[in-house]
Specification:
This protein is α/β, with parallel strands linked by helices. It has 15 helices and 18 strands. It has 2 domains: 5-218, Glycosidases (TIM Barrel), CATH 3.20.20.80; 231-364, Rossmann fold (3-Layer(aba) Sandwich), CATH 3.40.50.
Amino acid sequence: MSPYGTCSHLGGGQEHDAMPRNMTLMREAGIEWARADFSWSGIERPQGTWNFEHLDRVVKNAEEQGIHILPILDYSTSWASPSYKNPELWLEYVRRTVTHFKDKIRYWEVWNEQNLRNFWGDTPDPEEYAKFLRKTYLTIKEIDPELLVVYGGLAGVPAEFYEKSLQAGAGEFFDVMNIHPYRGGLVSQQAVKHFKEDIQKFHDLTVRYCGKTKPLWITEMGWATPPVLGQNSRYFISGVIEKLFPNGIPGKIAAVWDMHYPPSMGLNDAMWKKMLPENADFELFPIEKTAALDPKTFPVLVLPPGEDFPVTYADEIRNYVKNGGTLILHGGVPFYYQMVRGEDGYWVRPEKNPYAGSLSRSFRVRVLTWWTDKGTPEHTPLELAPNVSESLAKYPAEKLQGGRFFSDSE
């Protein structure tokens, strides 16, 4: 059996619509696992009405392609939130869901990233998760002792959270351990160096508290596809400049090329020429030199595409804007992640507290997401600009969805 899988939102939205085709592609690629939310709120709605049709389609398609589903029992409903404080209602959902699929699905994951407040729905508490896991485990085993329970995938490699849950008795109530050891892609070289050490910690803790080793699964890992460069960036940057400078830029464009700032490593002169307006007059600078930029000489500064930014230079960039400079940001939500200088001199995204909410707000950029702001939609159809639509012609426009939104509120 292939050990490779995808983590996909197969139960709803655009990924559900694209599921048959995507599962065919997965099978062709030798991928035999798909991890997906079997969320309570998608099954029982309204309260007392149970509907598995959308998940039946997922399981049927998976069977046809020879793909194993790893379902996640997770999240809360409006009438039972947070779930761990409503055990009777939660366990009723568990019983109905596991019973419905027990002959087709062998492994069951209990929650997702319970060490993060946004997912747990309350202050993360390893002792509470241990109690929650125990109740869920026993319920699943009552239905069928041969079913296997997977510890909820932890965000990162939080050995302290895991150990405290084991000290609270969690070790008896799972068959497979589960982590999400994201390394942060190109911006976390330091984290990559510690990967083996981090994994070993979890193995050692399992043996210490459980008296034996247990399988350790990685059910989320990786990083985003690199931001679209070249033609898409040119459309975007050119459009912004045309709006702001209809008579042309009264000076040069400053762009970043810095070998210690991973998002810009590959953005040499030739690459920036593809991204900036045709025949643009520009000059490249390392990130630390941007502090000395004069907006009169360089009225436009374009940062590398991406969502990471070295926090040390926030004041300099902010002053550049205050002094009249135009800052162009593309390739994601600006200033979404902070970067700190690593031990080898490279800027990296920290594993703990990587988000830079206060930084983005200091630039008057506020972002709303469904997992942090109640009432924000999880998926909203996108309307693409004509030029961008050309470059994304292979994607049906009606299938493209947005899940993060800018706001002018404080």
